[in-house]
Design a protein that fits this description.
Number of strands: 0
Radius of gyration: 14 Å
Number of helices: 3
Shape: globular
Length: 73
């Protein structure tokens, strides 16, 4: 949290959507019968790559639109 700012419901929902889709992608790509633990480190790595493509390379949205965040001060 920065200066008392909290995430809006829409921002939190967007984060959940992105993280859940990435987890589902990893699960779908894993061999059948292999369970993948929910690990934000891995999810974050994949999120960074997807963000680079959608935001930086394709320019489809801003970073905040893709995955809302707050900068720590």
């Amino acid at each position: 949290m920065v200066d008392g700012e909290i995430f809006t419901q829409a921002e939190t929902e967007r984060q959940d959507i992105v993280d859940n889709l990435i987890y589902q992608l990893l699960t779908d790509l894993a061999p059948w019968g292999i369970e993948i633990d929910w690990d934000m480190e891995y999810i974050g790595e994949v999120r960074d790559v997807i963000q680079e493509i959608l935001v930086d390379k394709l320019g489809l949205m801003t970073e905040m639109q893709f995955y809302p965040y707050r900068e720590l001060i």
